[in-house]
Write a structure and sequence with these properties.
heterodimer, A: about 170 residues, B: about 160 residues, mainly alpha, two-stranded antiparallel ribbon, 5 helices, about 70% helix
């Protein structure tokens, strides 16, 4: 398992940096959680690509969690750097929407301005923790999806391996 | 602890988390309508995984939900899939779904999202919701199996070290 962990680090770093960057850039972040799931799928693909090891969906979950954590860190750094751009972008969106919409939905301005989220250190750390939990969960899902799509399949013999009672649990597709 | 029990625990954990998450999505506009500042916390948490553009979100209690219509569909689908898991798979069958099924359920969302991104059409909320829901339906069948596999392997690894 320790050997497998070392195989996971580089793919998780690559997937995490890409996912974190894409999810943190305004306009591109319109694909929501899909960047994180996509980054973890990429990490799983990179992990299994040239490796002779047979990976299971549990390995996919681990590489996905690592990817999610890296993505949170990258996104946070990006947000700090891009904060002035974010505010300008939100302001421009608000002005554009006000030009076109006859009646603005309630709470629209407040959401776009984001002025309510003035940053303090405890709030920042709490936010980081919440983001890390959410991104880890999504990353785990992406990693499992990636393994299911790209990993070498364990030969489906007749030993009943897809039953949990045999301990050998995953990566057979029914 | 038996394997079946591990599956059941992972399943219960997944079901609890998705119910709480969906409740929070609906709670945000409710709290906002009651002028509770707690709504900011929920909107901020959900902003990590959704653009939250009001024109692409369903409105409840006069305010947009904490995630857009497509994301809401994905989470509702995830809840539906989790609910259906014991009926479709049972707690003793831990195989992953066929890739074909995954592609089939993903295609409507990919096509719809691509059409919107390239401005070929503009989907109504219900279409975003349904395409997201279809995709979300299959996700717990990966998540529960993968997480269970992780815990079973972890336990096996610990047993070997002992």
């Amino acid at each position: 398992m320790n050997n497998q962990k070392s195989l996971m680090l580089t793919p998780a770093l690559i997937g995490g940096v890409i996912a974190g960057a894409l999810s943190g850039i305004p306009i591109l972040n319109c694909l929501c959680c899909l960047w994180i799931i996509g980054g973890a799928i990429l990490a799983a693909y990179l992990m299994v690509k040239d490796s002779p090891t047979v990976f299971t969906s549990g390995d996919g979950a681990i590489v996905g969690v690592f990817t999610g954590i890296v993505a949170v860190l990258v996104r946070t750094v990006l947000e700090i750097i891009l904060r002035p751009f974010y505010q300008e972008f939100a302001q421009r969106m608000l002005e554009r929407a006000a030009e076109w919409a006859e009646e603005m939905p309630p709470g629209f301005e407040e959401l776009l301005e984001g002025g309510a989220f003035e940053s303090t250190v405890p709030r920042f750390l709490f936010g980081l923790l919440v983001y890390a939990i959410i991104f880890s969960g999504l990353g785990a899902l992406g990693g499992i999806l990636g393994i299911s799509l790209f990993a070498k399949k364990i030969p489906s013999a007749t030993e009943g391996g897809n039953d949990v009672s045999t301990e050998n649990t995953s990566d057979r597709q029914s | 602890m038996t394997n079946r029990k591990t599956v059941f625990l992972v399943y219960s954990f997944t079901l609890s988390i998705i119910i709480i998450w969906i409740a929070l999505i609906f709670l945000a506009p409710y709290l906002k309508s009651r002028s509770s500042s707690l709504n900011l916390l929920i909107y901020a948490a959900c902003s990590s995984v959704c653009h939250q553009i009001p024109s692409r979100s369903l409105h409840v209690f006069g305010y947009p939900l904490a995630v857009c219509a497509r994301c809401l569909g994905i989470y509702l689908g995830f809840l539906g899939g989790t609910g259906a898991f014991p009926l479709v798979r049972s707690f003793s069958n831990l195989s992953l779904p066929k890739t074909k099924s995954f592609i089939l359920l993903s295609l409507p969302m990919i096509i719809d999202a691509a059409g919107n991104i390239f401005q070929l059409w503009r989907s109504p909320h219900w279409l975003r919701l349904i395409t997201g829901l279809l995709w979300g339906l299959i996700l717990p069948f990966y998540f529960i199996v993968g997480l269970t596999d992780f815990f079973l392997r972890l336990r096996k690894h610990k047993n070997l070290r002992l």
